[in-house]
Amino acid sequence: MSETADGRRRRPARHRGPITLRGGEPDPQTAGTTTDQRLLDRRGGSDWVHADPWRVLRIQAEFVEGFGLLAELPRAVSVFGSARTKPDSPYYAAAEQVGGELAKAGYAVITGGGPGAMEAANKGACDAGGMSVGLGIELPFEQELNEWVDVGVLFRYFFVRKTMFVKYAQAFVILPGGFGTLDELFEALTLVQTRKVTRFPVILFGSAYWSGLVDWIRDTMIEAGTVSPGDLDLLHVTDDVAEVVAVIEAAEVEREAAARGVDGTVARPAPLDD
């Protein structure tokens, strides 16, 4: 069990979405599971037929809470990376620098709120005087929001959390990470490729780590015709923190120019089909 700054033992915590519980025994019906798991797992009886409609209200509440918390954020960038990145790793230092430089450029920094690269990016933003945001997730193993998060919320559902990462960010910066990081990467690429979001930079930081993936996309996927040659241009690979900020700022300028017509007036959004 970890200790607090004054040497006291830290009490273990359990989470139910945004709620933190300490003390007492966990509910044996839900111990060792997550809300997502209980939603998606249809094994057993037919109780889910009656329970799922009510889950919609909980899902709705998570969207409302997330929208309410983040609606007044300044322009922001979501930064992803491994929770396993150690403080002595060069990628930890890079994530901290990325967070700091984004904050100095006027961007809030959004992470998954966990340890490793996420903690480093939040720390960099916090130390630079910027806004540091953590969007946590309920997991079978408990994971607290890191201490550098200024504004944080814990979600039950991955898909609600993913919406927040995209909706309130102007770019994704992807540091070396595992399956969760790759999930966010390809989710962003799919949204950009299908034009669900536009002018949204997806930046891979750490060319040595990402070069194999980029080569595979070029040499296998493009060669097989499963993606188009131009799709590789949706990724920007760099080892330069200043270039990260420059790419994001350039995309913002382009986005603002596109929002205004050639005559300088603000373009009206097209009517929704539905």
In short:
With 274 residues, the protein is of the alpha/beta class. Helices cover 43% and strands 14% of the residues. The strands form 2 sheets. The chain has a 7-stranded parallel β-sheet, with helices on both faces. A two-stranded antiparallel ribbon has the order 1-2.
Provide key terms for this protein.
274 residues; alpha/beta; Rossmann fold; two-stranded antiparallel ribbon; 9 strands
Number of H/I helices: 8
Share of residues in helices = 40-55%
Which residue ranges are poorly predicted, with pLDDT under 50 across at least 5 consecutive positions? 266-274
Our estimate of the beta-strand percent is 5-15%
Total DSSP E strands: 9
Using the coordinates shown, work out and report the CATH topology of the domain at 75-259: Rossmann fold
| SSE topology string | EEHHEHEHEEHEHEHEH
CATH class of the domain at 75-259: Alpha Beta
What is the topology, as strand order, of the major beta sheet? 6-5-4-3-7-8-9
Explained architecture:
It is a single chain. By secondary structure, the protein is an alpha/beta fold. The chain has a domain at 75-259: Rossmann fold, CATH 3.40.50. Helices cover 43% and strands 14% of the residues. The strands form two sheets. It has a seven-stranded parallel sheet, with helices on both faces. The longest helix has 24 residues, at 47-70. The termini are far apart. The model is unreliable at 266-274 (pLDDT under 50).
